[in-house]
Amino acid sequence: MKFLVIDMQGFCIPEFIPKEMTFTDGRYVAHYWIKALKPFKDLDPKIKKHIRWFENNHHHLRYNDGIVDSNEVPNILYKHIIQDQVDTVYVKGHIKQHFLQFNLGQYNGIRLINLENTLDVPHLLQCMPYNCTHHINGQKTACVCSYENCKTIYNWLIGKLP
Ligand SMILES: [Zn+2]
Known about the structure:
The protein has one domain (3-160). It has four helices and five strands. The protein has helices at residues 45-58, 73-83, 94-104, 146-160, and strands spanning 3-12, 16-24, 29-33, 88-91, 111-114. It has a five-stranded mixed β-sheet with strand order 3-2-1-4-5, sandwiched between helices. Strand 1 and strand 2 form a beta hairpin. The N and C termini lie close together (11 Å). 29% of the residues are buried. The chain binds zinc ion. Zinc ion is lined by residues 20, 129, 132, 134-135, 145-147.
């Protein structure tokens, strides 16, 4: 069995768009910072308010930041999952699960497991993003980081696997 842990942090505009994506299978960690698809100025005021809240209170990732073009996301998923012949993907949260389901729908045979309702799965809390420089205030303020989340889930998971 070849498995992969994925975590993403992003915004709902209202559909989920990832801003930060992290993948790990224990041998490598891949970390992407995704550019916004639509400019902030073109968004609905209600959505802008939602974005500001997440920027300032949750993951501290700026909507306008990023390096990788959002059109690259399907290719990134293809590379890490299909090309790498992963058969099981672990993710925590139904929004992230739906995003992956939607993007991987055309490929059969991949088990997508949402750990959200699994007993004793760790909470993904705000922490200092020691391995990540994507967040407002750099590494000085606690926030929710996909890199840290991915590590937390992976470490929990390997303790559970036979
Ligand atoms: Zn981060």
